[in-house]
Design goal:
The complex is a heterotrimer of chains A (618), B (435) and C (147). Chain A has 618 residues and is α+β, with helices and mostly antiparallel strands. Chain A has 2 domains: 302 residues, FAD/NAD(P)-binding domain, CATH 3.50.50; 232 residues, no CATH class. Chain A is built from 16 helices and 21 strands. In chain A, the strands form 5 sheets. In chain A, strands 1, 2, 7, 8, 9, 10 and 21 form a 7-stranded mixed sheet that branches. In chain A, strands 6, 11, 12, 13, 14, 17 and 20 form a 7-stranded antiparallel sheet that branches. The two termini of chain A are 20 Å apart. Chain B is of the alpha+beta class. In chain B, strands 3, 4, 5, 6, 7, 8, 9, 12 and 13 form a 9-stranded mixed sheet that branches. The chains are: A alpha+beta (618), B alpha+beta (435), C mainly alpha (147). Chains A and C meet through helix 2, helix 13 and helix 14 of A and helix 1, helix 5, helix 6, strand 2 and helix 7 of C. Chain A: Belongs to the GMC oxidoreductase family.
Chain lengths: 618, 435, 147
């Protein structure tokens, strides 16, 4: 007999899943060790807010450490949007092989030369994880999202149905604090089927639509695509619409990504405080897991990790080991894979199915932007509060990817960094925004009026295209590049054009954008062939397409759940088939990326898995 | 003339009726007898907005402080036959006001009547009290991150003093505010839904009506190294609702916020005071003085303690002997305020050299410079940032939206069941009774 | 507050930006545009800008005409470029860095918050709104109120 383990449960990652699970298990009296690879900023968020406001490039990572760029000198580096800014332009892609060595040196995510575009999304490695910079969109998936193979004969089914998750979705909405009116969502039933059991109510009422949303919705009336009406719905949002749980109502700071300065948007910090208050949860920060040690029957016996300190560019580290009855990896779809692959002397574990690291997915964002005839006054209100949900399901899914459209409240900020770009154009006589074709130089009242005329009419649609899972879109360990702790960096192979299903989804987004702006105003969407604008080209039905793609921040699919140990890494409780005391949380377990933003579903699955773990422990 | 006084009805005007302030411009304070100690609240500042005169607002703050801390007589009224601090310390007017938890009733309950004796939690009856505690400080021990819980600061966490004890916070409001809440049943969710707009009565000039006023006090447990004769002291029951424990403690007042709604300031006027022994200025740390929240020898792993950092979790006020928070004041108190402080401290010490009230200083006064700016419901507050080292310890600084701004934060106060603004008070954000 | 800021700097800035001096004074309360601009472009350039503006006004030109005169590159290219940089600074809080003059940077969070661009488009800087819940459901105040 071995000695009593150090803890009941060790959880790796203090983000959405890890913090919630720590709270559930701690409240049930279980002794929990929670490890996070990054530092623990005090929850006052002043440091992050200051870093964001004073940063020159307001990218999703901007508020959060590490602030330096060199991943080989950082103990816990992460993927950064800034790195995609040096990706070669489409016309330059033939040079990828020559550019890659230098790109890979500077980027935490390194790439194979058969990649087409970089993986476009980012995440955070700090206590609280990517909950710091999530948008707050808290949609349930629709019934078809779980049954794509059965219903449309494409992709795969989940080993779960929507109805299995009703209670867990409700718990997730309560923990996060979701604001929505259930009637708004039920109005989508004719398109999306039933998503709520009878009698369900959200914890708080809706966050109302912005002026800009109402203008687009009004002017789009009567338009249809693939037989469905184009109409907007208030998005269920993890932001308060009333004072709740010690947090204020949303004040429309328009910066949900990357930081809510007033904590109206949920993040893991409050759940973590609850978890710590149980007295049963111990948090160790700056702890990077190196590997898991399986014993007889695949049962994981211990977990090894490095605790590090960084000072003056120097990293000192200490090796530690911990035993537990149950191990939980909640370190995100890329870091969790790394831990599995680094285990067993880098031969990997949990990989009988050969699915570990494969099927990396994101919602591929196609941006459509233009000017509306009517002033909508963007740059006001939550960053996004409404969307077009009517095209998330339908018979068309047999031939093309579905999408939802996130309708922005921040003008062309994402598209071309406005209002800064047009301001500089009007002052300096340039035309980067294409709003100053005569290259005028303005000042005073004229400058104000010109800037106001265009910027109060800007609109941006983001189509979140469901990316088909592909075996060759995968994460492995780099043989050549390491981080500051000497651990291998991820090697990514990433392509888009191998999936006709996905490409047809992108083409449908282009078409819909034309349709909308023909009615609403003028389409300014364009293809940009420039460094830092990852793009693809493809031919469909004899027609050439080129599109820039952006990341949704949805990192999905690298340890898919399924029906047995030959087709999947985990079962429908996120338990590893081969290691019965090892659970993998987060969107890495999703077999498909579906048509909703993933956070709510991954939180719901955390509640489901917590029940399994509690049952095991009792 | 820039500050108007509350007109007192009835015959008990006495001492204060003659006070007329002749302050104008920056030289007003040269004639120290212009500003007297009086038991009446100033009603409003006659503002030269936009921009305004900061000095007037600071005088307004001190007049409020003196009036609220005036010796209390019958029915919670100031005792006009006494003078503040004549016996060193005195029980005060504001301490008889309604506590926030008294109107945050359970479903079906009704708040107590104004000035009704306070109910003592049953568990406190078992406490061996020294000479009848005057008040009960309640706190909850586990809910964290709350804008107001009684050991956590707004949007932050707890402050732990040099003796390892948690600072306690208390929120009270005046009768005008109480009447408005009770008459509109704003202590219930139904009342909050029914009212079309929450709009507390404002102090008015020239009529001299008193406005809705809310105060927040921070208290430390007086212990090792503390000299009780330097503080305004209250012996209190410290009651922990979650743990159902109660202790009788001698508390010293370390911080004091006053917020008053006036005609000239629909965003309210925010005054904040501190005890002079709290913490040193960031620029003046070489001191051997004893501070409640600062130790010059504080070391952490061999290096000097980082100031104004939240304590490690978990936070539990019932545990004693926890690691103190090292506090410094980030922004030096400005010159105008310092001069006015010297004036009032001098006047208070003139009454009695041992007056505890002379040990308090005004940190600043935040007011709206352009109260009806259609582009800014906050009315362009000045100073843009203002913090009390005992109440916004961790949010000092000048980072937009995050650093402490009284109006900035309170303008986001809404009902607990909707986004309806509650006119700058977070008390109504914590209502749970249905109807 | 900001006693060191000369009136001419405010009238010049007002003419260049199209905003009232009152709005600029409010901005100066947390972000010293005057001192930082002087640091980046030098006291001489700043003095020349103000002098050029003032003498044009002294000759009977309106502030707008005086501003146009300064911005005319055929008169003095360096001065015109500095004036344009001052406009961009007021509008975006971005100015050339003394460490690397080829890139624009934001000296501190308050410069970003005070950028006039957001007022010119009747909005607010991201992460620094002063509005209340639901303000986004109705159109903003009139443009003239923002100036």
């Amino acid at each position: 007999m071995t000695a009593d383990p150090d803890f009941d449960v060790v959880i790796v990652g203090a983000g959405f899943s890890g913090a919630i699970m720590a709270k559930i298990l701690g409240s049930a009296g279980k002794r929990v060790l929670l490890l996070d690879s990054g530092p623990h900023d005090t929850p006052d968020r002043v440091t992050f807010q200051n870093a964001y406001l004073s940063s020159d490039a307001k990218l999703p990572n901007a508020p959060y450490p590490p602030y330096e760029r060199d991943p080989s000198r950082q103990a816990a580096p992460r993927a950064m949007t800034a790195m995609t800014l040096t990706w070669p332009s489409l016309s330059d892609m033939r040079n990828l092989k020559t550019v890659l060595p230098s790109f890979n040196r500077q980027s935490y995510l390194t790439y194979t030369d058969s990649s087409e575009i970089p993986f476009l999304s980012t995440y955070e490695r700090i206590v609280g994880g990517t909950s710091w910079h999530w948008l707050g969109t808290a949609l349930r998936f629709d019934a078809s999202d779980f049954e794509m193979k059965s219903r449309y004969n494409v992709m795969v089914d989940w080993p779960l149905k929507l109805t299995d998750l009703f209670d867990d979705y409700a718990q997730a909405e309560k923990e996060i604090g979701v604001s929505a009116n259930v009637e708004d969502q039920r109005a989508m039933e004719k398109y999306l089927g039933v998503q709520f059991p009878p009698g369900y109510e959200y914890p708080m009422g809706r966050i109302p639509m912005s002026v800009s949303d109402k203008v687009i919705n009004e002017e789009m009336k009567g338009l249809t695509f693939d037989g469905h009406d184009l109409e907007m719905t208030c998005t269920p949002q993890g932001r308060n619409s009333a004072f709740r749980n010690g947090r204020p109502a949303c004040r429309g700071n328009s910066s949900c990504v990357p930081i809510c300065p007033i904590h109206a948007k949920y993040d893991s910090m409050e759940t973590l405080q609850d978890a710590m208050a149980t007295g049963n949860v111990e948090l160790v920060t700056q702890a990077v897991v190196t590997d898991l040690e399986p014993g007889p029957n695949g049962i994981i016996r211990s977990l090894n990790y490095l605790v590090y300190e960084e000072a003056n560019g120097h990293i000192s580290k200490q090796t530690k080991s911990v035993t537990a009855k149950v191990f939980v990896l909640a370190a995100h779809a890329i870091e969790t894979v790394k831990i599995l692959q680094m285990s067993n002397n880098r031969k990997g574990i949990a990989n009988k199915s050969d699915q570990v690291g494969r099927n990396l997915m994101d919602h591929l964002c196609y941006l459509g932007w233009g000017l509306s005839n009517t002033q909508g006054f963007p740059y006001r209100g939550p960053r996004s509060g409404s969307g077009i949900e009517t095209l998330r399901d339908g018979p068309f899914r047999a031939r093309r990817s579905a999408w939802r459209v996130d309708v922005g409240n921040v003008g062309w900020e994402w598209a071309d960094d406005d209002p800064a770009t047009s301001l500089k154009d009007f002052v300096n006589g340039t035309n980067n925004s294409r709003l100053n074709p005569a290259k005028e130089q303005l000042f005073g009242a004229e400058l104000v009026e010109r800037l106001n005329h265009f910027n109060t009419r800007m609109m941006r649609l983001c189509y979140l295209v469901e990316q088909e899972p592909m075996q060759e879109n995968r994460i492995t360990l780099s043989d050549t590049h390491t981080d500051g702790l000497g651990l291998p960096r991820p090697l990514v192979n990433y392509r888009v054009t191998d999936s006709e299903l996905t490409l047809r989804g992108i083409a449908a987004a282009e078409e819909t954008t034309d349709l909308i702006f023909d009615k609403v105003g003028k389409n300014y969407s364009r293809f940009i062939d420039g460094t830092g604008y990852p793009a693809i080209k493809f031919n469909l039905d004899g027609q050439d397409h080129k599109a820039n793609l952006y990341g949704a921040g949805h990192i999905v699919g690298t340890y898919r759940m399924g029906t047995d140990d030959t087709n999947s890494v985990v079962d429908n409780n996120q338990r590893c088939w081969e290691h019965r005391n090892l659970f993998l949380l987060g969107s890495g377990s999703f077999p498909t990326i579906a048509t909703g933003n993933p956070t709510l579903t991954l939180v719901a699955l955390t509640f489901r898995t917590s029940r399994s773990i509690l049952a095991d422990l009792d | 003339m820039s500050i108007s006084r509350v007109a007192r009805s009835g015959a008990t005007i006495g001492f204060c009726a003659a006070v007329t302030l002749g302050l104008s411009g920056r030289d007003g304070l040269a004639q120290t007898n212009d500003v007297s100690l009086a038991p009446d609240m100033p009603a409003d500042v006659i503002a030269g907005n936009p921009i305004g005169n900061y000095e007037d607002y600071n005088i307004y703050s001190w007049l409020s402080f003196v009036a609220l801390n005036w010796p209390v007589g019958e029915n919670g009224q100031p005792d006009v036959n006494s003078i503040i601090g004549q016996n060193g310390d005195n029980s005060t007017v504001w301490e008889t006001w309604m506590e926030d938890y008294q109107i945050l009733v359970e479903d079906g309950e009704v708040p107590p009547t104004w000035q009704a004796p306070r109910a003592v939690p049953p568990v406190c009856g078992n406490t061996k009290a020294q000479s009848g505690p005057s008040r009960t400080i309640r706190h909850v021990s586990s809910k964290t991150g709350a804008v107001v819980s009684l050991t956590n600061q707004a949007d932050a966490g707890p402050l732990i003093d040099q003796n390892g004890n948690y600072v306690r916070y208390e929120i009270l409001f005046n009768e005008i505010m109480y009447n408005y809440i009770v008459q509109n049943k704003l202590y219930t969710l139904a009342g909050l839904s029914d009212i079309s707009e929450i709009n507390f009565p404002a102090g008015a000039s020239p009529f001299g009506n008193e406005g809705a006023t809310e105060v927040k006090a921070s208290w430390k447990i007086l212990g090792k190294g503390d000299d009780p004769s330097r503080f305004h002291v209250a012996t209190s029951y410290v009651y922990d609702q979650a743990e159902n424990t109660c202790a009788s403690e001698m508390l010293g007042l370390v911080g004091f916020h006053i917020a008053t709604k006036t005609n000239s300031a629909p965003q309210w006027i925010w005054s904040t005071f501190e005890h002079i022994d709290n913490a040193p200025d960031k620029g003046n740390l070489n001191t051997n003085k004893h501070y409640s929240f600062y130790s010059s020898g504080c070391l952490d792993n061999g290096s000097t303690c980082k100031a104004n950092q939240l304590p490690e979790m978990p936070w539990n006020p019932t545990q004693s002997g926890q690691t103190p928070v090292q506090v410094v004041r980030e922004a030096q108190i400005n010159g105008t305020t310092t001069r006015i402080n010297a004036h009032f401290q001098g006047a208070l010490k003139a009454v009695n050299p041992h007056s505890v009230w002379g040990n308090y200083i005004l940190v600043g006064t935040q007011y709206p410079q352009k109260p009806s700016d259609p582009t800014d419901p906050q009315g362009r507050p000045f100073p843009p940032y203002l913090a009390n080292t005992t109440m916004e310890t961790f949010l000092q600084g000048e980072v937009p939206t995050s650093s402490s701004s009284c109006i900035g934060c309170h303008s986001g106060a809404t009902a607990s069941n909707s986004g309806k603004p509650t006119d700058f008070t977070f008390i109504l954000s914590r209502v749970t009774a249905k109807d | 507050m900001n006693a060191h800021v000369p009136d001419t700097f405010l009238t010049l800035s007002s003419a260049l930006t199209g905003f009232t001096e009152e709005t600029l004074i409010f901005a100066q309360q947390t972000a010293d545009f005057y001192a930082v601009f002087e640091g980046a472009y030098g006291a001489d350039t700043l003095a020349q800008l103000m002098q050029s503006f003032q003498s044009a006004v002294g000759e009977g030109n309106s502030p707008q005409q005086a501003a146009a005169h300064i911005l005319d590159e055929t008169q003095d290219k360096t001065l015109a470029e500095a004036a344009r940089a001052l406009i961009v600074f007021w509008y975006l809080g971005q100015i050339k860095s003394t460490a690397d003059p080829t890139v624009l940077h934001i000296p501190s969070a308050n410069f970003f918050k005070q950028g006039l661009t957001w007022r010119a488009i009747q909005a607010h800087p991201p992460a620094a709104s002063t509005q209340q819940f639901g303000y986004w459901t109705t159109p903003p105040a009139a443009l003239s109120d923002f100036l």
